[in-house]
Amino acid sequence: MGALTKRRVTILGSTGSIGVSTLSLFDEATRQGTAEVEIVALVGGRNVELLAEQARTWRPARVVIADESLYQPLKERLNGAGEGIEIAAGTEAVIAAAEMPTDWVMSAIVGSAGLAPTLAAARKGAVIALANKESLVCAGPTLLETARAAGGHVIPVDSEHSAIFQSLQTACAHRVARLILTASGGPFREWTLQDMAGATPEQAVAHPNWSMGAKISIDSATMMNKGLEMIEAAYLFDTPPERIDVLVHPQSIIHSMVEYEDGSTLAQLGPPDMRAPIACAFAWPDRLPWPAPRLDLAAIGSLTFAEPDPIRFPAIGIARQALTAGGLAPAAMNAANETAVAAFLDRRIGFLDIAATVSETLERMEAVGDLGAGAAGDILENAMTTDRSARRVAGDIVAGLGAAR
Ligand code: NAD
Ligand code: MG
């Protein structure tokens, strides 16, 4: 393999935590002379200030802001420095940016809003570095099949899936017995149920090991993040739910493991820094030399493990059930969770209400036959219709809970 990784790159969600880490990695690797990056498009949601600054630094061919009302502010901030950079805004423009010819697309929009642009990129056959786990949860098989059919690849960026992906890159990657997803346990790992009931958004976003966007931070606190990741792993690695386990590992050093049928377990380790799985997805099948933080196990001293507590963290069980039910249940679960997390961040419901809302949404939709596994028609359309229904049902539940507070 050559020493220089050269890529044309599009970043969907460049202003978020993963987007910023991606550009930081490019900056480091470019300085080292190990990567050459040409940015095709940068896409952000609402943060005009940061998006304009990124565009000035990286000179993409196109810069897109998802919120249409921010077109003019973006244009003004780029004024003068924006020569040669196309500016666009709105949902359609996000999809059009995802379709631009490129080698590598970082999919790092948060939530099911990332599905349509990620699918659009998949149709073009680019390598997709997938951070946006919600798009896999909503329509995993379709997304993977679309990429495959177009001659592209989906390389996981989620640290657990990157670990499993790497632990499967051996000549003897047959006879997998189990995938073991490690979980930090989040900020409430040792809290009582009673204390969790009164947890505030500030306490819930304060993750012990990772600095991430608000939504995934709350998912880590409820452990719905691990539930979403279980579904993500099932699709990515074509593994049934009963062969995927969750193990609490508070130090976040072992990022996940693959147990083979001969009793061997392979794992990938590293300091908790998302630039490592991003680098892996960027250079794959090569490795990217960059000044990565190195693992100092002697300094860490000990690694510990525990079973997750199903009483305080019911979200893992809810996700397992949705995955087993199949069809549109994971899409409904994801949308209900996005709705409930937004309500919790807005202080409209309590922390424990998040999982309760998701579970109740799935029960109500199941009861009226809204989660049919074999629904005919376009999968993206089905997933998005289910997404909207689940948001309505969860919205009603949230309103009821809010009124009762
Ligand atoms: P974030 O909230 O920090 O960033 C989200 C990005 O998406 C921002 O750029 C935002 O502007 C953009 N965005 C939001 N809504 C949009 C829309 N409708 N259209 C276009 N752009 C939109 O989130 P994050 O922590 O960077 O996470 C991004 C994704 O990566 C999530 O799916 C998350 O689960 C996954 N992920 C994140 C981490 C992490 O360490 N942050 C780790 C693993 C996986
Ligand atoms: Mg993860």
Notes on the protein architecture:
- The chain is α/β, with parallel strands linked by helices and 405 residues long.
- The chain has three domains: 152 residues, NAD(P)-binding Rossmann-like Domain (Rossmann fold, 3-Layer(aba) Sandwich); 132 residues, no CATH class; 80 residues, RNA polymerase sigma factor, region 2, helix turn helix motif (Rna Polymerase Sigma Factor, Chain: A, Orthogonal Bundle).
- Helices cover 48% and strands 16% of the residues.
- The protein is built from 17 helices and eleven strands.
- The strands form two sheets. A seven-stranded parallel sheet has the order 4-3-2-1-5-6-7, sandwiched between helices.
- It starts with a strand and ends with a helix.
- The mean pLDDT is 95.
- The protein binds nicotinamide-adenine-dinucleotide and magnesium ion.
- Nicotinamide-adenine-dinucleotide binds next to helix 1, strand 2, helix 6 and helix 10.
- Belongs to the DXR family.
- One of its GO terms (molecular function) is NADPH binding.
- One of its GO terms (biological process) is isopentenyl diphosphate biosynthetic process, methylerythritol 4-phosphate pathway involved in terpenoid biosynthetic process.
